[in-house]
From TrEMBL:
Coiled coil: none annotated. It comes from Staphylococcus equorum. This is NAD(P)H-binding protein. Residues 8-189 form the NAD(P)-binding domain. One of its GO terms (molecular function) is oxidoreductase activity, acting on the CH-NH group of donors, NAD or NADP as acceptor. InterPro entries: NAD(P)-bd_dom (IPR016040), NAD(P)-bd_dom_sf (IPR036291), Polyketide_Oxido-like (IPR051606). It comes from the Bacteria. It holds the Pfam family NAD_binding_10.
Length: 204
């Protein structure tokens, strides 16, 4: 199995690349600038310039791209669409990092986290952009996608416990470390349990 991590220089991208590398996977970092990851297998190219030839050898592509600039939030959808088009109608899988705002806070699925009273106003626009990518990828039957959301509190400096719990689309905990999220991501790469589905990762 050959794996590519797009935007591998980012916080999540670096840890996912390391997790895959440490577990012996054949992992390539796709980065726009100089490689900052543990692997020496690198494609240095802008995400939006990637072609089908660039990803031809990979079985799984992880979209770790993120954009926090409020003037460029549409790049969430654009990047996902571009990568989706590259793997369209193939056996290649596309794993996408989402956001917790799309998760429900009640079993009846009447209220999403983004619409709950305590959701921070400063995160609403980026959360809306991430929800839009989920709604768009759900419509694509030509892509073997998986949409993976972290818990509401995504802890970069959180410890790696080696344990986590999953939810299909509900908030069942408050936090998860980047390291445990990376483990869940690589587990999904290997086990392929959620093709054309989403799930969320929480500290156990």
């Amino acid at each position: 199995m050959k794996l590519a991590v797009v935007a591998a220089n980012g916080k999540a991208g670096q840890l996912i690349t390391k997790e895959a590398y440490d577990r012996g996977l054949d992992v390539t970092a796709i980065v726009r600038s100089s490689n900052k990851t543990v692997t020496d297998q690198v494609i240095q190219k802008d995400l939006f310039d990637l072609t089908t030839a660039d990803i031809a050898e990979f079985d799984v592509v992880i979209d770790a791209f993120g954009q926090s600039d409020e003037n460029k939030l549409d790049e969430h959808s654009k990047s996902m669409k571009h990568l989706g088009d590259l793997v369209s109608n193939s056996n290649k899988r596309l794993l996408i990092i989402g956001g917790a705002g799309s998760l429900y806070v009640d079993e009846a699925h009447t209220l999403k986290l983004i619409d709950s009273p305590d959701f921070p106003e400063q995160f609403k626009k980026i959360s809306q952009a991430q929800i839009k990518t989920l709604e768009e990828i759900q419509k694509r039957k030509d892509v073997k996608w998986t949409f993976i959301c972290p818990a509401p509190v995504f802890q970069y400096d959180g410890e790696k416990t080696g344990e986590y719990k999953l939810s299909a689309d509900e908030v069942i905990g408050s936090k998860v470390s980047y390291a445990d999220f990376a483990q869940a991501m690589v587990d999904e790469v290997l086990e392929a349990q959620h093709i054309q589905q989403g799930f969320a990762v929480f500290a156990k």
